[in-house]
Design a protein that fits this description.
Elements (H helix, E strand, L loop, with lengths): L1 H11 L1 H9 L4 H10 L29 H10 L6 H22 L1
């Protein structure tokens, strides 16, 4: 239960903090955009089984692959998609923390 609280807290609350610190002029919109990047989890629907509690999603699902993560980093270089890139990178960091948690 603690892992789930941390996971969803990181997915929902920390993007708000990131938006407020780095995108202060439009922090509410930036926060909503970063929350919307959770749609990247749509790739979980093609997995079999769809949900597996002890599976690390990093480099398992296509939108969580190392190549995709590289694209997300490249997105931060372009102002028009920077917020989306930051949201996706933070999403991957949060999911990677789950992988570390599983290793304990």
């Amino acid at each position: 239960m603690l892992q789930q609280l941390i996971h969803y807290g990181l997915h929902l609350l920390v993007p708000g903090l990131i938006a407020w610190v780095f995108f202060r002029n439009n922090w509410k919109i930036a926060w909503l955009i970063m929350i919307a990047t959770m749609l990247v989890d749509v790739d979980h629907l093609i997995a079999d089984p769809v949900f597996m509690a002890n599976r690390c999603s990093i480099n398992f699902h296509p939108l969580h692959s190392y190549i995709a993560i590289g694209v997300y980093f490249l997105m931060t270089l372009f102002k028009k998609v920077r917020i989306v890139g930051v949201g996706l990178i933070f999403h991957m960091i949060t999911d990677y923390l789950d992988c570390l948690w599983l290793a304990l």
